[in-house]
Amino acid sequence: MDAPACAPPGEAGFGEADLCELVAATARELQRGLPLQAGVTPATTLDRDLGLDSLGRVELLLRVERAAGVALPEDTLQSAETVADLWRSVQRGRPLAAAGAPPAVRAGLEAPPPAPAAPSGNPAQAAQTLLQVLDAHLRAQPDRTHIVCLADGGETHIDHRRLADASAALAAGLQRAGLRPRETVAIMLPTAPEYFFTYFGILRAGGIPVPIYPPARASQLEEHVRRHTGILANAQAVFLVSGPEVMRVARLLQARVGTLRAVLTPQQLAAGGGMPRAVPVRGDDVAFIQYTSGSTGAPKGVALTHANLLANIRAMAATIAARPEDVFVSWLPLYHDMGLIGAWLGSLYVGMPLVVMSPLAFLARPQRWLEAISRWRGTLSAGPNFAYELCLARIDAATLATLDLSSWRLAFNGAEAVSPDTVLRFQQRMAACGLRPEAVAPVYGLAEASVGLLFPPPGRGPRIDRIVRDAFVREQQARPAAADDATALRFVASGRPLPGHEVRIVDAEGRELPERVEGQLEFRGPSATQGYWRNPEQTARLFDRGWLDSGDRAYAADGDIYVTGRVKDIVIRAGRNLYPQEIEDAVGAVEGIRKGGVAVFGRADAGSGTERLVVLAEQDPRRGRGAAGLREAVAHAVLDTIGEPADEIVLAPPHTVLKTSSGKVRRSACRELVEQGRVGAATPGAAWQWLRLALGAVVPWSKAAAQTGMDALFGLRASLLFWLFAPPVWLLTQFMPSPAAAWAWCRRAARALLRLAGTPVALQGLEHWPADRPCVLVCNHGSYLDGVALVAALPRPCVFVAKRELATQFVAGRFLRRLGAAFVERFDAMRSTADARRLAEAARGERSLLVFPEGSFRADVEMLPFHLGAFVAAVQAGAAVLPLTLTGTRALLPDGRWWPRRAALTLHIDAPIEAAAGEEPFAAAVRLRDAAQSAIARRLADAAEA
Q1: What is the pTM of this model?
Q2: Does the structure show a pLDDT above 80 at 866?
């Protein structure tokens, strides 16, 4: 095979043929020297043809970099499916000499001066929202480096000013695109500056961010689209912010999710610049929705408020004594709570720099993580157990000799089960790099608690508990084991509850258990979510009389909590609790089984009334071991580990075991795979998946196109009807003998117009309107069509109260005067007081007053504050206030648009509200205003939920 004319930037002597030979040699070595069934060509796939798992691919990339003399692009691990893909990455790589390390001392990373406004030196101490956190740092230290993004050998510095300016421009773009407050916006971006700008841009625009992960590999495309279609549909996302590199996937998602109005890039949103309209954001507003790993059919989105996040961040920061002089180094994905909250938002609150890299950069070369800690003098960092295991497996002694980890004061291990072996081996091996043993800190958290819940005391180091196996699996008693007990179970302490939070261990009936008895772990505290987004059934299951069910089992001992496993994953067989993690580790060590490719779960056995223990294990058919021998070896591994055999051993090809985006085994999904008989089913290639997804999108696209056409026809019809009706209605109104006659004529015309347009107004609650006396009707205001809808729906004539500016207009003024409208002053205080007296007199008349107490409306705010005038008039006249809630007109014709869209219109009349006998007049007016505003707000919220 001839080498191409254009050599890679590393060494001119390394060509495509050399790459094929290197791939073949690596595959043979990883397959214990067995010959390949066919030669390696550019079309050879790394997984299906060569059986390279994730660790094998990492090893291959490291060898390619050394042989070619280039640093491969960070997306290579994700994007390279074939040898040809890998060769293209080599050609895009940078010479290793140019990928040198940045200097250890960095300008802009020095500790900021103390902020005098905050007693503890943290300008954000009093912040109630994430936006206030950024604003506080912007005022106190705008030019201090907040984030350093490392990517492909380069770095980008982001200070507080740049984050604020860039996110403001993006927020303005979202508002121009039509984002309304409390609408959800999905973020599908890699780790890059644009991610940070987008997240805060959504918050600044009044929206709710929904982080989702970009597609991992082309071969997993269908799985990605299926899962994220369910997430986006549940979130009712209106926009998806994505990068150009995954725009095709984003378009496929848009075709399947009816609420998605547009797919946009950060660059498109920020191109127009400008400042966003101010949107009030409070501590109890949702700051983002974290979707937990689960079934595609019923995704669970944990809704977390600004108050939840800040409570969690403050508690974690206090526990670990975080300070601005710290440096957090992270590769954790920003779509996951540990990376988003623990690493980024925690760093922002404390005011310490965050050095961040892509997860792909870490997975491709695990030493990049430790190199960044060494070079940037990182003090805090975190990762799941597999990350520490990957460092142990893939970083050689020569690389370790170049590292200085003495600055690393806390190495958090969480997000998945913590292995005692990993903890001990990482302590021992990294001690040569200066890592103190007490720096290793196993922790526990979950999305429902924001992120963190249990932390050990800083500087204590990990605790490992050895307990008697039989007493634990049969009686759930965690009795300490003798030092020579080879069968003892080991669990790692996760620490103690964060300040202000509580945990308890309970049995199945909710009774609290004593120490060293295993049960269900429940918690409560200010970080706890209020529930799952648009999922009341799952929310109800989450709570137990004020406590939240973590879904995990644990026991307490000597002040620490030891988490033992997921409730749904533990297999109960013949009265014994069997823990999948332990069995999976043992089976994964069997020769011929892919490490990390094992799932253990239970299946109900109706005949015995207990559960069957099932082991699903991925085998490498090239390792030369027959299925019978491999199954026997797996059976021995299970028997040696738990003292009992497995009921069912299922051998499967590579990539069968399903995992979450963070690498956790999806045991329930694997159970479904086995029960449905889909183990061993061939995975279609990337091209075939693209074709199937494209064909599957034809129907949604066709429906969307048809809907667009119908919307256009509706807009055209409604507009033509309006202009056909408006001139004759206005003209005939001028000749009506009385306001009552004009009202009756306009009511018939308005009802005919809306009925012909296909949007009649449904009236609810008419029984609440007193028939024997006039009232003051107060209604929310959201569109120029509100008056038309009210005239059509209300059965009795009313006196419209309109702003005085309309009185001088020829068309609107003459029309409203013929209807008997009353005009009031909004700006001149003297005239406004006189108008209030006139309104009180009008309220004593025969017709009810109809008032928009907001005075105006805006597209970006559902409801403006109510003015007092109408309520003062009601108190002075002794009239009842009748709250009216009008829904649908804002969607039919929102502010800033002149092309109507189809919407269902409803007018709901609530029960009248009156001043109490002897109540002070002004206090009564305020109470009536607040009660009416609350009643209308509740109706609007109910309509939004529906």
Answers
A1: 0.79
A2: yes
